[in-house]
Design goal:
This protein is an alpha/beta fold and about 290 residues long. It has ten helices and twelve strands. The chain has a domain at about 10-170 and about 190-220 and about 265-280: 3-Layer(aba) Sandwich (Rossmann fold). The strands form four sheets. It has a six-stranded parallel beta sheet, with helices on both faces. The relative contact order is 0.16.
Length: about 290
Amino acid sequence: MRLNDKLPGRVLMLGGGGLLGTAMIPALEGAGVEVLAPPSGELDVRDLGALRARVAGTRPDLIFNTAAEASVDRAEKDPDHAFQVNGLGAHNAALAAAEAEVPLVHISTDYVFSGVGRRAPYQEHDPTGVPPNHYGRSKLQGELLVRATWPRHFIVRVAALFGPGRRDFVDWVLADASPDKPLTIVADRFVTPTWTEDLARQLLALIETPYFGTYHATGHGPASWFELARSALELSGRDPAGVVAVPDTELPTPPRRAAYTCLDNHLLRMRGLDRMLPWRDALRRHLSGARLEP
């Protein structure tokens, strides 16, 4: 039984095995929503025919697209694959939603912004500029195709996800950081870290509404990757000397990454819907094993 009649009765979740899907599926099910989450090996967003057939056969009330090529490094090595999944895959999800006349939730990223000359968090209406890598450009293409295809959409930009169920940046730091052999973490790239449990609760609140459009939904407050790593160690009672700060220029990573892609949940706030926590509070709760009520 659904806890709220404004929520969809049945959701088709694309990419449900990822970090956000791992939090979103139990959040939906806990609210009484039936979730259909075929693995990517069974239903590939790049296959429009298969997607249309699955939607016609299952008749969901909402389609949730979290499927993505999310690795910046892999996207740089194989940009065609990134554009097929992040661009055409998003387009296919929108086409299927339009044909079924059901809303679409499409998850995007802070990497759609160029970050050039920026020192204040981006709001939804700010021009993206040209993203500096293929991952960001492919995700931006996905946004543009969704908007051009089906107006009943929620495009939700998220950033720097951490949460239970899948290995993430915070897990890597806690597993590998040691004062004897510290990790070198970039200190001059800034993001808005986001707890997936917090984000799932926020998305539940959003899909209850008819307020379609593009939203930012991240933890409150900017952080460098070094600050996030050091905070994870400190909040876990670990020696923060397990990480050392380095500038972006000293990292050998091949794809260019923007120096500043912090997001402001402006539209959620204007709608009175912003439920996201400050990122430090969210990280503290995550590390303590806390869960959030819808």
